[in-house]
Amino acid sequence: MKRTTEILVATVLFLVGAVWAGIKPVGFRCQTVAGLYADDVICDIAQRPTEADFIEDGYTPFTTWAAFSSNLISDIDSKAMSGIKDFSIHFDTDIDLGGYSETKTACDELFAPMDFGSISNIKLTIDGDNNTIKNFCYIAEGENASFFGKLTDATVRNISFENAYVVAKTTSPQMPASAAVVVNEAQNTSF
């Protein structure tokens, strides 16, 4: 009986640890809509308790922010290469990125910025729909650190940040790194 109880307790602790490891899944869905003069793309971003919660709504879920961010950028880049120029990104929910762990002295989640700098000739609107990015943590070494990386010809509105921890460690005096919560480099961009 004692051994059964020990196994049960160990299993429960393992499952609880697995649930709390990393962030809740984040997903996106991008839809092409016919505009007055050209096609537009609207991408919705949401965070849900489980990956299964996304399936019904047509979202593609990811269990890490890094995978989510690189796939969203890749999807937008492929649509831009096909000639689409107007993109809107909407945050349908708050996003919780796990934050900074004092005990580990590190971020709880591997972060990759939503960096649209490599995508040229697009008009981008990012609308937080009054949602909040919570517990954003990014520690970069030898590179700039921010949530959006670089924005050009963009509008950012209705989004807030809560409990952000951003550090850029300079690894070479010839290439100093800088840190900002929202964006490191903005050209022709309004907030």
Summarize the structure in words.
- With 191 residues, the chain is an alpha/beta fold.
- It has one domain (24-190).
- Helix content is 21%, strand content 39%.
- It contains 3 helices and 12 strands.
- The chain has helices spanning 2-20, 52-55, 65-81, and strands spanning 26-34, 39-47, 60-62, 86-91, 95-96, 100-101, 106-107, 123-134, 137-141, 150-162, 165-169, 185-190.
- The strands form 3 sheets. Strands 1, 2, 3, 4, 5, 8, 10 and 12 form an 8-stranded mixed beta sheet that branches. Strands 6-7 form a two-stranded antiparallel ribbon.
- Strand 1 and strand 2 form a beta hairpin.
- The radius of gyration is 19 Å and the shape is globular.
Give a quick precis of the structure.
The chain is of the alpha/beta class and 191 residues long. The protein has helices at 2-20, 52-55, 65-81, and strands at residues 26-34, 39-47, 60-62, 86-91, 95-96, 100-101, 106-107, 123-134, 137-141, 150-162, 165-169, 185-190. The model is unreliable at 1-21 (pLDDT under 50).
